[in-house]
Write a structure and sequence with these properties.
The complex is a heterodimer of chains A (249) and B (312).
Chain A (H helix, E strand, L loop, with lengths): L5 E10 L2 E11 L4 E5 L6 H9 L6 E6 L2 E2 L5 H7 L1 E4 L11 H12 L14 H13 L15 H14 L4 E5 L7 H14 L4 E5 L3 H7 L2 E6 L2 E6 L1 H6 L1 H6 L6
Parallel strand pairs in A: 3-8, 3-9, 6-7, 7-8
Antiparallel strand pairs in A: 1-2, 1-4, 4-5, 9-10
Chain B lengths: L1 H4 L3 H12 L8 H27 L6 H17 L5 H23 L5 H19 L10 E2 L15 H24 L1 H11 L1 H6 L4 H27 L1 E2 L6 H14 L5 H20 L4 H14 L7 H7 L1
Antiparallel strand pairs in B: 1-2
The chains are: A alpha/beta (249), B mainly alpha (312).
């Protein structure tokens, strides 16, 4: 089997006496969508922070394409090809939709110590940004100010920004949070289309979406992975059912 | 052609007014001195506007960069070096170096801490200047002549000085605009709006912000050297934190949205200060509340005034 794109080895994180990540080990293979589910407070977002580099684990390691990136800051990990979307939308509200994405293209083009040419008219940046917007179906809103988008559109923009980074791994922190039923359907369609091209680590509350999209699911409860496997086996797992007492899959 | 110029109508009108002012009754010595002061402060304010409006770095120590530039002129003058080709580059480098060294520390912080630390560096510069007894200490240092240009006394010609300043202001404004619109400026603006997002894209904002801070410091150094020439006198009060506060207020008074707001703010500030003082010795009683009103009701600064009036 090919080397995993992302590998977490024995990650451990505690805030005081509260253990939020407890010996978490998991892998994401190229082209695989690995979803993490778990009840509220299970430590999903804390785990995402440790993968993206905003939070350092107390113990354990994060490997990306075979390289130990545990000590690398957020920006360095992003340059290696690890793109994250944010649970709370973090688009740049004062920028246009196109400029939000063009900035991601610009980040890939090496340093930005270029002082004279207006960036807004650089065709090379804008063309690639438009391509990413088309991929998520937001091209028609390119000129709008990002702050004026609807919630669902902002989620699409988050995706376009991540795509424009041409990452190897997409780290999606609740990409469907707060989206209405129609928007959710559209976003699932978009993710389905992207799936073959990227490794994805998906944290999501929307169970139907997770079971529709995931190749593998890990269940996180109180910081521990209590089960990991194909969607069908997770659905049948009694420990998982106990953790989600009363909830429908 | 006209349509292309329309978005620049306000800055073009500002520059035209400044260019024509000496011909329209502001040509007397006193008026030209006043205008020179306003233009020099505007020059410095443009650097600060790039930091505050562009990068979101609210510095309360910008006057220190001007002070460093001014004291560079003093020290060179004391060593009998008055050639503009030496004096101005040294002042620019000194202002930039001061900003680089202090910024390297200050930019590691943000928000209120950044304001406090820039203020602290400014005060350090102030007390250092006050203790330089060789250069007049608290009493300041008086020049016996302005910096010479190619061996001439051209800078002492008030008209020449006025138009030279105006040219520098035009250059700084245009350069600042290009800078903010460039890839570099885009990273600065993004880091202001959301630093975490900017890092998640792969940018480390620190080197970008530090370079912007250094460039603004260099421009401040130039402005300081020019102010030393305009007043033919330098004192530690040049560096006092009140001056930094004045500069910050000019930038906000004019409007943070666009760079020419800083020019408008500096002009309004200097002219108001001057004419209110002529009206009454208690002018601060009018000036203060006026500034409060602007801060309360003109969120976009003077630049937003026409739009507000149009909407009634």
């Amino acid at each position: 089997m090919a080397e995993p794109l992302l590998e977490l080895r024995g990650l451990h994180k505690a805030f005081g006496a509260l253990v939020v990540t407890d010996a978490v080990s998991l892998t994401v293979n190229p082209g695989e969508l690995h979803a993490i589910i778990g009840p509220n407070g299970a430590g999903k977002t804390t785990l995402v922070h440790q993968v993206s580099g905003t939070l350092a684990p107390d113990a354990g390691q994060v490997f990306f394409a075979g390289q130990d990136i545990t000590a690398l800051p957020l920006a360095r990990r992003a340059r290696l090809g690890l793109a994250r979307s944010f649970q709370i939308t973090a688009v740049l509200p004062g920028f246009s939709v196109l400029e939000n994405v063009a900035l991601a293209v610009q980040a890939r083009a090496g340093h930005s110590f270029r002082f004279w040419r207006p960036a807004a008219t650089e065709a090379a940046l804008n063309a690639q940004a438009m391509a990413a917007l088309e991929q998520v179906g937001l091209a028609s809103r390119a000129a709008a100010q990002a702050g004026a988008l609807s919630h669902g559109e902002k989620r699409q923009l988050e995706l376009a920004i991540a795509l424009a980074m041409q990452p190897r791994l997409l780290l999606l922190d609740e990409p469907l949070a707060g989206a209405g039923p129609e928007e959710t359907e559209r976003l699932i369609g978009i993710l389905q289309g992207l799936k073959p091209h990227y490794g994805m680590l998906l944290v999501e509350h929307d169970m139907p979406a997770v079971f529709a999209l995931a190749d593998r699911i890990s269940v996180l409860v109180y910081g521990q992975v209590i089960a990991s496997g194909a969607p069908a086996s997770i659905r049948a797992n009694p420990a998982v059912q106990a953790a989600y007492l009363g909830e429908d899959f | 052609m006209l349509a292309r110029l329309k978005p620049h109508a306000v800055p073009l009108a500002l520059f035209a007014a400044l260019a024509l002012a000496p011909l329209l009754g502001f040509g007397a010595g006193h008026s030209l001195s006043l205008l020179a002061r306003a233009i020099i402060l505007a020059l410095s304010a443009i650097g600060l506007a790039v930091l505050v409006g562009g990068a979101g770095l609210v510095s309360l120590g910008h006057a220190a960069c001007m002070g460093v530039g001014a004291y560079a002129v003093v020290m060179l003058d004391a060593a009998r070096i008055t050639d503009a080709l030496v004096v101005f580059p040294v002042a620019i480098l000194a202002g930039g170096l001061f900003a680089l060294l202090t910024g390297a520390v200050a930019i590691r912080t943000s928000g209120v801490n950044f304001i406090m630390i820039t203020l602290a560096f400014g005060q350090m510069a102030f007390f250092t200047a006050a203790s330089l007894s060789a250069y007049g200490g608290d009493d300041g240092y008086t020049f016996y002549g302005r910096t010479s240009l190619f061996g001439t006394r051209l800078l002492e010609d008030r008209w020449f000085f006025h138009y030279a300043l105006l040219l520098l202001l035009l250059g700084a404004w245009y350069g600042g605009r290009r800078l903010l619109a460039s890839r570099f400026g885009r990273v600065l603006r993004a880091a202001r709006e959301n630093p975490l997002r900017t890092q998640a894209l792969g940018f480390s904002p620190y080197p970008y912000q530090l370079l912007a801070y250094t460039l603004a410091g260099a421009l401040g150094g130039l402005a300081g050297a020019l102010l030393a020439n305009a007043t033919e006198f330098v004192a530690p009060s040049f560096i006092a934190w009140q001056r930094s506060g004045d500069l910050l207020f000019m930038v906000i008074l004019g409007g943070l949205g666009q760079l020419h707001g800083a020019i408008l703010g500096a002009l309004a500030f200097v002219l108001l200060e001057e004419y209110l003082a002529e009206l009454t010795p208690h002018w601060r009683l009018i000036f203060g509340p006026l500034l409060v009103l602007v801060a309360l009701y003109l969120k976009g600064g003077l630049l937003s005034l026409p739009g507000l009036l149009r909407r009634g």
